[in-house]
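subagent[fold] <- orchestrator: predict structure for attached chain, return tokens only, no commentary.
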Amino acid sequence: MEREGTVGSELMKHQNLKIYPGSPIPLGAHCVGEGVNFAVYSRHSDAAELCLFEPEGREEVARVTLPGRSGDIWHGFVPGLKAGQLYGYRVTGPYKPRQGHRFNRDKLLIDPYTRELHGNFQWRDEIFGYSHEADEEWNLDPRDSAPCTPKSVVPDPQMPPFRHPKPETSWSETIIYELHVKGFTKLHPEVPDDLRGTYLGLAHPVILGYLRDIGITAVELLPCQAFISEERLASQGLSNYWGYNPLAFFAPHPGYARSDPVAEFRQMVDVFHGEGIEVILDVVFNHTGEGGEQGPTLSFRGIDNRSYYLLDPADLRRTVNFSGCGNTLDISNPEVLRLVMDCLRFWCSDMGVDGFRFDLATSLGRRGAAFDPLGAFFSAVHQDPVLGRAKLIAEPWDLGPEGYRLGQFPPLWSEWNDRYRETVRSFWRGDPAKLPEFAERIAGSSDYFRNPGRHPRATINYVACHDGFTLRDVVSYERKHNEANLEANRDGSHHNVSWNSGREGETDDPEILRLRRRQRRNLLATVLLSQGVPMLMAGDEFGRSQGGNNNAYCQDNEISWLDWNLAGNEAEMVQFVSFLNRIRKENPVFRRISFLEGVIHPVSSLKDVTWLREDGEEMAESDWRNPERRTLGVLLDRTGVDIRHRNPHDRDPGGSFLLLFNAASSEVEFTLPAPIRGDRWRVVFDTREKTATTTETGFCQGHVYGMSERSMAVLGESA
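subagent[fold] -> orchestrator:
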């Protein structure tokens, strides 16, 4: 017979409340029959108490000890409770920081598995588990933190089915568009006021139509897991706009919802799928918003600090800080790994997302301080029947020892390629000795990714992302201008690999403005026609600027929000991006599934790629070694294109393309080689022109094609 638990005698409103041991699985709170089962992992604790709150979350109306313990999981079943019930935990155990333990029964704790939060977090002294004067065992803080801590919510088990299937776009056809849920629609004039900055605003038809028209196949959303702002930012009137400071991994951020974050997020995803657009979620599992050892006690720290976080073996009072944000989750702990895996499956299955970009992903493969690409996390993901079908993208570094791991993630993973970003920027600003690496980058970065089981899809190519300058600022600023962040311009990277085109910041000089626009076209065209998976940052297609701020993580204002008036003013640039995406979509030579080889194919007797000098002859070794060479011709042929991976939009892949790059500060004349299968070359586009239109006039072998300084042209074959 099951043993009943008792309600704490100090709370009389629910003194007849009954609780039974229930089940240790699944973790979290789940409606079962006529009640709710609660389960929480805490290895080093002595007891776990369930706290129930009235609907507004202001008053704690019952407190009861979870009576069941199976291994390291505390659990209990409360009959009569329903979905929507507000709750939290209080966990009893030793407060011995020198042993890694920071239990404090007076602190209300968020369930790590909660799918929704109720109420706002407040920075008050009560949320800290210890006195600020010192950090010793006798400095336990006795104040109740419930008034300033969000409450967990028992989820509704009945979620409506999705109307649309997942698009399951192949990697070779994927074009990623990185955006911020709030900032993308906050200023959009055609999105209703009450929807701007929300999940539903992002699902508005005008937004979907825009993304469809420019050729986007996947949106990559900056973090949507519930997050909080750091204490310093809050005290200065700023906020963590980007969201890389998670509070609850399973819960959609409530600040992007009108009323129901779960339902509205799911509706957004479903609408995107109806348009054939995938949703990739930027997730943060390297750290939590509890920060370092002097941070607040909100969830993991109070549930079991030593189990959830990596601690310094030499001083267990200190958290290991591989994230740069104060703490690091201990993914090597099987229960923490289970938490992450359960969370990823939840977002994939219940919330409908198509993939993930993992922030500071090196930390997920650490076993202690060492990185293991075959470690428990990667092995678990690889064998998982749900996650094995998802798009998986690593940010391949963290701040720990030997944290930079580009090209070292397992097969089936793709990686943000910052070497691509820096090399392409360097080439187009005219740096010497960049041509060989530039060729490697646009060919798919095989020097990093040519490993067993990996392909060009492993490289996510970009020249701008949320972290750093926008594309417009890349060609307008050489120095960061982060004064608005209130850190005396000390924050953010000093290594921008940018060029202001002759004058820092905004200018009315027509020559500089023309050069900047041409450079933007050069960079956009390079990204979208390189081998690998292209990624654009929202607004770069119409010249969004942050005024030279390269670390706008705390700017929830016009610095970060997209100014949609620019989209109208720069319609030709938006049209250019749409045109480039169409070229990529229709021609599989720009999206190969295998690396370019540059050798004669045994069947066709042709090369898939030929690297050319200005005179139309093939590059020699001495040409590659010339540090002053800034011009290159790239002849791409269909040789080696696997027709099994063509999509219905592909044209006959018989045509070849000639890409001409001139990063020099002077004009260059290119002698055109012979077309491989046609008899003439036609100009597909030239970045010195404002519009992107294919010319009908053709050029024969030997024609001298004049290129302006810092420009790019693409020519295609015609019969």
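orchestrator: received. Logging for downstream: Confidence is low (pLDDT under 50) at residues 1-12. The chain has 16 helices and 33 strands.
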